[in-house]
Amino acid sequence: MEKNMNLKILYEDNHIIVVVKPAGIPVQQDKTNDIDMLTIIKGYLKEKYNKKGNVYLGLLHRLDRMVSGVMVFAKTSKAASRISNYIRNKDVKKRYLAIVNSKLKVSDQPVLICNYLVKNERLNMSKVVTKDTKNAKYSELEYKVLKNIKYNGKDYSIVDIDLHTGRHHQIRVQFSNINCPLYGDIKYGQKVNKVGQNLALFSYYLSFYHPTKDEYLEFSIMPEDLKDDKLYKFDKIWEETYGL
Fold first, then answer.
1. What one-character DSSP code corresponds to residue 158?
2. What's this model's pTM, rounded to 2 decimal places?
3. Of 75, 69, 99, the residue nearest 238 (C-alpha)
4. Of 55, 97, 174, 217, whose CB count within 10 A is highest?
């Protein structure tokens, strides 16, 4: 992946840039030294505005490497500080689509999942623990079951997730804990998923207050909106579900 890859940009002004992250690209540099979103966007800004020296870009939130979807980055320290405060105050809304390895009851009524999670830094995994466990963090999300599908003879459900907190691997861990691991999640669903499947998790919605304007911003993009872009490769289960 080149530094000047064709970014999918949903919004840009002097303070923020909102993009769609492809699956397979880390948000920031990791031990693999693969190209990452921070480097890609900095390269884009440097080239577009003919900037000399270092380019400031604030990382405000994260998506797992194998998750694609909408992200916002700050182009100024002022914007970074304000949006970070919005996130701490739960004024940033995030919604995801996921496919889970289970046939759940379709309903318009949301289901609330509340757990305490702790991260194992060595394994880069999180797990559900009791409230009094050292370093445990409260984690909460709601989901609605949109529909059931059958794929290769197995039953799956498509869920719409409203993420209330942003813990490490939170969606993956909490659904695995109720015996509904995400399709393609080898780390948390070893018994039902296989190597080579793409993780069926997509961040389709992001909303927040603009850091300097009296304006509420909402961004939404669906998997089918990206079907013609080769950067966004979805597993065949997505293709059958959304007609990609």
1. E
2. 0.92
3. 99
4. 174
